[in-house]
Automatic annotation (TrEMBL):
Species name: Gossypium hirsutum (Upland cotton)
Keyword Signal carried by entry: no
Stated name of the protein: Magnesium/proton exchanger isoform X3
Major location category of this protein: membrane
Spans through the membrane: 44-65, 169-188, 200-219, 341-361, 368-390, 410-431, 452-474, 486-505
Topology in membrane: Multi-pass membrane protein
Taxonomy of the source species: Eukaryota, Viridiplantae, Streptophyta, Embryophyta, Tracheophyta
Domain of life: Eukaryota
Gene3D superfamilies cross-referenced by the UniProt entry: NCX, central ion-binding region (1.20.1420.30)
Gene: LOC107912368
Localization (cell): Endomembrane system
Keyword Transmembrane listed: yes
Keywords: Ion transport, Membrane, Transmembrane, Transmembrane helix, Transport
Pfam families: Na_Ca_ex
Length: 530
């Protein structure tokens, strides 16, 4: 029997969507009874749900970042022999390299929603000759959100007058190159080599480029000869994130209190053949105490600081806000404390929660498109891109707040854009192209690939504007983030304006307002056909 491919162009499961109020949308989130409500009310409720998911993503991303800090802080004991004195020198060495941590733990972790959702979409789409809905267009929207709004937030995060600069320009330039190359490579695949289709070899090369990015960034960080750029590295702190005295003291108090509660008589009853049993039990008690504290904090609606406030209205507002956060905080309290296994268990659990919420966000944006009649491509560029990139924003904001340099905050932006293409779209393409090649002997077709040229042109143009501003700030102010409050806000507004341009122009193109392919006209002027 010969397998027959499903030639389904598109992957819409939205029901009947049209202009708001004209056609009833049959899609729903939880219950079929939702369809009985008016489209206007449904759209409002779904937008509220979307905003509440963003709040949840902010909360779990903060926990994800803390677990990642613990992973990066992990060190190992290295024994070296002094060649002159022949004595052993014992020192502690960091397990994780800064550049590798930024590209893998930070960028890969915050991009995990896009990667997991696109992979799930590819698995559900197996057997179709056309790629699923989470394709290049959606990831371009996510890339633009990473580049413009996140830079806009990070530049105003430092305190007034505080400057935070990139300490290793060489690594940043390497990451920036691979970020831009990712989208140039996307254009080459879809418009030059094999227009509107993707072959298995193109998909495989796309995934392998993530490994090349890792190797190149590591080589630049270590200043390998012939591969790295001859740029000196500025001063950077020994620790990836400075230790927080308050939180450490709090945890130490819990740890000490556990030891004080252990009766001294236990020393006499310990078996001589189990000398470490007491220490193991105490460590277990420490972890359980921390886990218990997570649940207690989640159920506490008013902190001691709030009780000290003299303004009753402000206290009530804080209690209401904590009540709104309580369901998320209680849910995330099930994530094990980040002190376990150097933070790896909390890291993985946080990623699972992030992916779950991101999946709900994509479902909500699909239904919002159906209910309101807004073009799905526009939804992908705005709400869906913001939803899946929200962890990127929160992680970069935390890095800009807590780190002494701007390296990780900006590296998360550039590297996330690379990960979105090399992994977020490379793995789904590899799954679908491999299946189609083995089963049907056919490549993977991309729907609406011709519109990507215009979108990529707008993206590259606005990206140049963004990077140019960062360079100018470095030359004039001496840092990419922070500085005088006025100029920080001017920069932030400019970045948001670039994002608005990126969103509006492709949206008008998709909606048919821009009828002519401007990018083809420009290419014809630059490279006239003979």
């Amino acid at each position: 029997m010969v397998a027959v491919p499903k030639q389904v162009a598109g992957n819409s499961m939205l029901g009947n969507s049209s202009i708001l109020g004209d056609v009833k949308c049959n899609s729903y989130l939880l219950f079929h009874g939702e369809t009985a409500l008016g489209n206007g009310l449904r759209g409002f409720l779904y937008f509220l749900g979307l905003a509440y998911c963003f709040i949840g993503l902010s909360a779990i991303t903060a926990r994800f970042f803390r677990s990642m800090e613990n992973i990066v802080k992990h060190s190992r004991t290295v024994v070296e022999v002094d060649p002159h004195t022949n004595t052993e020198i014992i020192k502690q060495e960091k397990v994780w390299n800064y550049a590798t941590a930024d590209i893998t733990l930070l960028a890969f972790g915050t991009s995990f929603p896009q990667i997991s959702l696109a992979t799930i979409d590819a698995i559900r789409n197996i057997g179709n000759l056309y790629a699923g809905g989470l394709g290049p267009g959606t990831l371009l929207g996510s890339a633009a959100f990473d580049l413009f709004p996140i830079h806009a937030v990070c530049v105003v995060v430092p305190k007034a007058g505080e400057l935070k600069k990139i300490s290793d320009i060489g690594v940043w330039l390497v990451e920036l190159f691979w970020s831009f190359w990712a989208y140039a490579w996307l254009y080459i695949i879809l418009e030059v080599w094999t227009p509107k289709v993707v072959t298995i070899w193109e998909a495989l090369l796309t995934v392998l480029m993530y490994g090349l990015l890792l190797i190149h960034a590591y080589a630049q960080d270590k200043r390998w000869p012939y591969i790295s750029l001859p740029l000196t590295r500025g001063e950077r702190p020994e620790d990836w994130v400075p230790a927080e005295v308050a939180s450490v003291n709090c945890e130490d108090d819990i740890y000490d209190s556990i030891y004080r509660k252990v009766p001294a008589a236990e020393d006499s009853v310990e078996s001589s053949n189990r000398p470490f049993q007491k220490e193991i039990n105490l460590e277990d008690l420490h972890v359980l105490q921390l886990w218990k504290k997570q649940f207690m904090d989640a159920l506490t609606l008013e902190s001691p600081e709030s009780r000290k406030l003299n303004n009753a209205h402000l206290r009530v507002a804080r209690i209401l806000w904590q009540s709104l956060l309580a369901p998320w905080r209680l849910l995330f309290a099930f994530v094990p404390p980040y002190q376990i296994a150097h933070g790896w268990i909390a890291f993985i659990c946080s990623l699972l929660f992030i992916s779950g919420i991101a999946y709900i966000v994509t479902e909500l944006t699909d239904i919002i498109s159906c209910v309101t009649g807004i073009n799905a491509y526009v939804i992908a560029f705005t709400a869906l891109a913001a939803g899946t990139s929200w962890p990127d924003l929160v992680a970069s904001k935390i890095a800009a707040e807590r780190q002494l340099t701007a390296d990780s905050a900006i590296a998360n932006i550039t590297c996330s854009n690379s990960v979105n293409i090399y992994v977020g779209i490379g793995i789904p393409w590899l799954i679908n192209t491999a299946y189609n090649f083995i089963t049907y002997g056919e490549p993977l077709r991309i729907e609406n690939a011709e519109g990507l040229g215009f979108t990529l042109m707008v993206f590259f143009s606005t990206s140049v504007g963004c990077i140019s501003v960062l360079v100018v700030r470095r030359l004039i102010l001496g840092a990419e983030l922070g500085g005088p409050r006025f100029w920080a806000w001017v920069t932030s507004v400019f970045f948001m304006l670039l994002w608005l341009i990126f969103v509006v122009l492709p949206s008008l193109r998709v909606s048919g307002v821009i009828k002519y392919d401007i990018y083809l006209y420009i290419l014809d002027l630059v490279f006239p056909s003979t």
